[in-house]
Amino acid sequence: MPVHTHPGWTRQDRSNQTAVERAEVVVAAKDAVAAESVDEITDALLGASRLLVALSARSLTLVDDSITIPQFRTLVILSTRGPSKVVTLATALDVQPSTAARMVDRLVGAGLVDRKPNPDSRRELIIELTGRGREVVDAVTAHRRRELAAVVEKMPKADRSGLIRALTAFTRAGGEPPADLDVDSYQL
Predict the structure, then answer these.
(1) In angstroms, rounded to a whole number, what is the distance separating the alpha carbons of residues 70 and 64?
(2) Which of 93, 63, 66 is nearest to 77 (CA)?
(3) Residue ranges covered by each domain of the chain
(4) Where is pLDDT greater, at 178 or 52?
(5) What is the pTM (predicted TM-score) of this model?
(6) Phi, psi (5° rounding) for residue 96?
(7) Angle at 36 between CA 35 and CA 42, to 5 degrees
(8) Which CATH number applies to 41-159?
């Protein structure tokens, strides 16, 4: 890299400029590594998500093959966050309220959720899991837990060490509540 100097600069001035240019190169290299790292992490997460979706679908099918993955996601949200208004559920699912309402209709028909009057507003309904809905979530989760444990056991111990911290940070960054969340901490 050429050093551009001023004719009146001292040797120290030129040395300082060279150090600054070297620092800029190091920063640029770190930025390139960070960008590459994000791409590599994204690719790894895409691979992991394919596995997780496959495990989830298989677990769901073994417990109740009439429930779709989006319907199960609705049950999980109600399980982790507690009873919810349809509009709040729609936001959590990232769908329109009308789409969430249709999903709730199907889940009510299947006996997995109930609609109850909102004690704070007569015009609103609260959606909550039924006993059967809770059983489905628990059974699917137990099956997924066993399958995930089998995969983790196949991993070398050295590769497992940072997994908890990394996945916890990833889950938090994505806005998903932790697996051990107390549902009373969520608002309707």
Answers:
(1) 14
(2) 93
(3) 41-159
(4) 52
(5) 0.69
(6) -70, 150
(7) 90
(8) 1.10.10.10
